[in-house]
Specification:
- By secondary structure, the protein is α/β, with parallel strands linked by helices.
- The protein has one domain (about 25-210, about 235-385): Alpha-Beta Barrel (TIM Barrel).
- About 45% of the residues lie in helices and about 10% in strands.
- The protein contains 17 helices and 12 strands.
- It has helices at about 5-15, 25-35, 40-45, 55-60, 110-120, 135-140, 160-170, 190, 205-210, 210-215, 225-235, 245-250, 265-275, 295-305, 320-330, 340-370, 375-380, and strands at about 65-70, 85, 90, 95, 125-130, 150, 175-180, 260, 280, 310-315, 335, 385.
- Strands 4-11-10-9-8-7-6-5 form an 8-stranded parallel beta sheet. Strands 1-12 form a two-stranded antiparallel ribbon.
- α2 (about 25-35) runs antiparallel to α16 (about 340-370) and α5 packs parallel to α16.
- It is globular, with a radius of gyration of 20 Å.
Length: about 375
């Protein structure tokens, strides 16, 4: 049973020996450091949200409406944060959510590999995006023994979609996360003011360039002409015609568990369950796609409708305390997005590893100091609004 709080003690003891931390310990400091080192167009792409950014800000603010009820003398000196997901025993209920531009956020432009190596070091799974700077097979190998999940933006070319899914399964990914809310781009003024965004400049298209079916769609199968690659990618990226009926097709492509990302309505949860999916992923894409209510406000209804289905959650998570609150509301596992992206930008693998260990330490200490030994106790009696 991991004692994640030890990372705090280790930092104090290292300081006594004269070894001072080089990475921030708060989201605000991490965000400021990332802004200083990232190219301005890339910064706007990552930091921005849909419309005026209200949904993005509301995602974060929603956590402040909830608190934990402290329980004393409860024997919580040792905590168990482990969770079972898709038949896997994970040391914690935390995962890295997909970031479609992660690959170019590190100075060496191999951010997906940096996050994968951090997953290997911490045991925190990575949901690798379809939009990677390195092929999905290389990213899977870099995760070592830590399980990884593959996120699919379902292209309108079914044969390309089939190829991506089968490659992911062959590479050892343990679940398929199908994103539903990005069949076209949301209205993003901070990108519009630059007249572009990273993929249209050829970034993070390695999974397409390395795919034989995608290559067969190009003149002469030539993937060296980035302008042609981008053009064909843009024409097939989203699938606005995807419907509930297509889940049977996706189910037939793979034995991996299927997770639907972007489900926020209870009726949609029930439809997904009827279609035989393996988990629900409650998310509003971090406020990047459509304006909506805060994702956290949807979580209790999603959990209730999901019944025995696992519920993954992301959007607005900025701290270990936020992780604990989402778990108390019923999430099976909680995804981290921008924080680990910023950590990758400022410190590569070392930065992401530090960030994950900080979040796990804070979550562990938040549970222990409030008197909760495990996730079952937390969900039973911890939360107050």
């Amino acid at each position: 049973m991991a004692n994640f709080a030890d990372y705090q003690l280790g930092t104090y003891f290292a300081g006594l020996a004269g070894e001072m931390p080089t990475m921030p310990f708060t989201f605000a400091a991490l965000e400021a450091q990332a802004e200083r080192v990232m190219e301005h167009r890339l910064w706007d792409y990552v930091a921005g949200g849909a419309g005026d950014g209200q949904t993005q800000r509301a995602n974060v603010d929603a956590f402040s409406r909830y608190g934990l009820v402290p329980r004393m003398l409860s024997g919580a000196a040792e905590r168990d944060l482990s969770v079972e997901l898709f038949g896997l025993q994970l040391p914690s209920p935390v995962f890295m959510a997909p970031i479609g531009v992660l690959g170019v956020m590190t100075p060496d432009e191999h951010g997906d590999l940096a996050a994968a190596r951090a997953a290997a070091e911490t045991g925190v799974p990575l949901v690798g995006s379809t939009l990677m700077q390195d092929p999905l097979e290389d990213v899977a190998k870099a995760m070592g023994e830590t399980p990884g999940f593959f996120q699919l933006y379902t292209p309108n070319d079914h044969e390309v979609a089939e190829s991506l899914v089968r490659r992911a399964e062959a590479a050892g990914y343990r679940a398929l996360v199908v994103t539903l809310d990005t069949w076209t781009l949301g209205y993003r003024p901070r990108d519009l003011q630059h007249g572009t965004f990273p993929q249209l400049r050829g970034a993070c298209l390695a999974n397409y360039i390395s795919d034989p079916v995608f290559a067969s769609r190009l003149p002469g199968g030539d993937t060296s002409d980035i302008a042609t690659v981008v053009q064909h990618w843009a024409l097939m990226f989203g699938n606005p015609m995807l419907t509930w009926d297509d889940l049977a097709w996706l189910r037939g492509l793979t034995d991996m568990p299927i997770v639907l990302k972007g489900i926020c309505a209870a009726d949609d949860v029930r439809k997904a369950a009827d279609a035989g999916v393996d988990a629900i992923y409650c998310s509003n894409h971090g406020g990047r796609q459509a304006a909506s209510a805060p994702a956290l406000d949807f979580l209790p209804g999603v959990v209730e409708a999901a019944g025995d289905l696992p519920v993954l959650f992301d959007s607005g998570v900025r701290s270990g305390a936020d992780i604990v609150k989402a778990l108390a509301l019923g999430a099976t596992a909680v995804g981290i997005g921008r924080p680990y992206g910023y950590a990758a930008a400022t410190g590569g693998t070392e930065g992401v590893t530090h960030l994950l260990r900080c979040l796990l330490a804070e979550a562990d200490l938040t549970m222990g100091l409030n008197g909760y030994r495990d996730l079952a106790e937390l969900r039973e009696r911890a939360l107050v609004r």
